[in-house]
């Protein structure tokens, strides 16, 4: 959103902020939409079993289907999850218009070694059910280009969010307990009101003080060809500086780690190393000149600055 704001020139901060909050809401939609996806895939698998049973001359396999996947406890917990069902009643999210995608995903999943091992194992356990669903998300859904294409067609906000949202889904499923039934906790849009205000304030501070923070970065890159530094790298550095200066309760080592994670998605490996080294130097200087002042939780680990190995 910062990139879009500065690329558009003299934009309106209020409008940009609304777009930011809307994009976060759309990510939350995607979180629920992708949780629903595994249920749809299981429904497709169930329908195939029923069709096979109706053959005029069914085979032994047709008459004795392996129902381990469609009986998966995690899938059935999602199917009756109160939070998920309540969200879906308020938001028109459905995979009914993409039957070919569901078919392709099902066929792709059933050909994987980890899924075959799961289906061939006669024992059934909650942990095994949980692991196979997490593997489906983290190993197959995350890498299927067809899924990205479908999501991009539905929302311009979704294509870049899939990997992050899937990481949130695996985190969610990891927290499921066998006796939760339909009460397993899903993630909330914001942790609390303070979390929401943090998003807005960081965005605004990064825009309002952009020239000041850009000059700080440039003062530490005098021996670099500034024109060759990617615009997104500048934005990452500027936003990190905004966070370090404007939010005294966040330790600088936490800020550095967070922006290195962002750089993984938006920059090259060389850029990531460059950002890490530069932030260390910049933060040390800003502490010495008292522009970074940490209080409370922000003091944790502030004796030394962080350097990535």
How would you characterize the overall build of this protein?
α13 runs parallel beside α15 (269-288). The protein has helices spanning 2-7, 13-53, 60-63, 73-79, 82-90, 99-110, 113-120, 126-140, 145-154, 162-174, 193-208, 210-219, 231-246, 252-266, 269-288. The protein folds into two domains: 25-183, no CATH class; 193-299, Orthogonal Bundle (N-utilizing Substance Protein B Homolog, Chain A), CATH 1.10.940. It is mainly α and 309 residues long. The protein is elongated and about 80 Å long. 65% of the residues lie in helices and 0% in strands. Residues 305-309 have low confidence and may be disordered.
Task: Write a brief caption for the model.
The chain has 309 residues and is mostly helical.
Instruction: Give helix and strand order, one letter per element, not per position.
Output: HHHHHHHHHHHHHHH
Q: How many individual domains?
A: 2
Number of helices: 15
The amount of helix comes to 55-70%
Give average pLDDT, whole number: 91
Instruction: Please count the beta strands (DSSP E, at least 2 residues each).
Output: 0
Low-confidence stretches: 305-309
- What is the overall silhouette? elongated
DSSP strand (E) fraction? under 5%
* N-C termini distance: 30 Å
**Structural class determined from secondary elements:** mainly alpha
Radius of gyration: 24 Å
Q: What about the largest sheet?
A: none
């Amino acid at each position: 959103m910062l990139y879009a704001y500065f690329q558009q020139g003299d934009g309106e901060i209020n409008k940009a902020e609304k777009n930011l909050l809307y994009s976060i809401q759309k990510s939350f939609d995607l979180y629920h939409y992708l949780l629903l996806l595994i249920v749809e895939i299981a429904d497709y698998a169930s329908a195939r079993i029923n069709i096979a049973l109706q053959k005029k001359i069914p085979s032994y396999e047709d008459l004795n289907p392996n129902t381990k996947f469609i009986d998966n406890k995690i899938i059935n917990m999602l199917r009756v999850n109160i939070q998920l069902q309540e969200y879906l009643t308020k938001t028109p999210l459905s995979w009914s218009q993409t039957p070919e995608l569901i078919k392709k995903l099902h066929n792709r999943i059933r050909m994987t070694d980890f899924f075959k091992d799961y289906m061939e194992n006669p024992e059934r356990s909650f942990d095994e059910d949980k692991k196979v669903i997490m593997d489906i998300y983290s190993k197959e859904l995350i890498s299927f280009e067809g899924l990205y294409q479908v999501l991009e067609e539905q929302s311009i906000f979704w294509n870049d969010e899939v990997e992050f949202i899937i990481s949130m889904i695996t985190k969610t499923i990891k927290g499921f307990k066998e006796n939760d039934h339909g009460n397993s906790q899903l993630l909330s849009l914001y942790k609390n009101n303070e979390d929401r205000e943090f998003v807005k304030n960081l965005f605004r501070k990064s825009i309002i003080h952009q020239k000041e923070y850009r000059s700080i970065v440039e003062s530490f890159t005098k021996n670099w060809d500034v024109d060759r530094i990617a615009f997104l790298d500048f934005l990452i550095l500027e936003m990190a500086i905004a966070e370090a200066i404007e939010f005294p309760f966040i330790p600088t080592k936490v800020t550095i780690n967070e922006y290195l994670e962002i750089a993984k998605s938006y920059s090259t490996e060389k850029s990531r190393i460059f950002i890490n080294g530069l932030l260390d130097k910049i933060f040390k200087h800003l502490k010495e000149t008292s522009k970074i002042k940490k209080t409370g939780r922000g003091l944790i680990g502030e004796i030394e600055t962080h350097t990535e190995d």
